[in-house]
Amino acid sequence: MRPRLFISGIPLLLMFIFASCGSSENPQSRKMPEKESTMTWSDVERYAREGSPKPDRRVEKTPEQWRAQLTKEQYAVTRMKGTERPYTGEYCESHEPGIYACVCCRTELFDSRVKFESGTGWPSFTEPIKASVISYHADESYGMSRIEVLCNVCDAHLGHVFPDGPGKGGLRFCINSASLVRVDSVRNAVAHD
Ligand code: FE
Fold first, then answer.
1. Which of 26, 40, 41, 188 has the maximum number of C-beta atoms within 10 A of its C-beta?
2. Class for domain 41-192, per CATH?
């Protein structure tokens, strides 16, 4: 009887070992993140230094293709890193609800609910819709040390980001109207509710 008891005990022992391995896993590692944490200036500096998050997709076109699709001003700002004159852009003082997308590739970039009146003459936002839609680059042009923001999908120049915003993350995305197109607010409700 004794050897039979010993043999039948082996599967039980193995079960115990596997069960123990299972219970040693950190339950936190299986949790899905509830919401992206608020981006701060140190994240922006890190992205500019080490590289931005990977975009979900890429759109690449020749200068001729962009020129055919965009107005002169949109092309000058987005593809040639231009800047529109302050207080002249379509969305400078607009606070209609909606989503602001990249004028070149229609990637959704900013929600009107995080747009604020900065007094600078350019549309200003506290955060992007998600971190991976924007890429961040050190810009030392014009004797200034700034961080340029581009559409991470098509590399359109959007503007710059500064560490003096009013939101929780303390960021101010200063964006050219010419780089943006406001899209349907219905999609806004679908995407965020
Ligand atoms: Fe784009």
1. 188
2. mainly beta
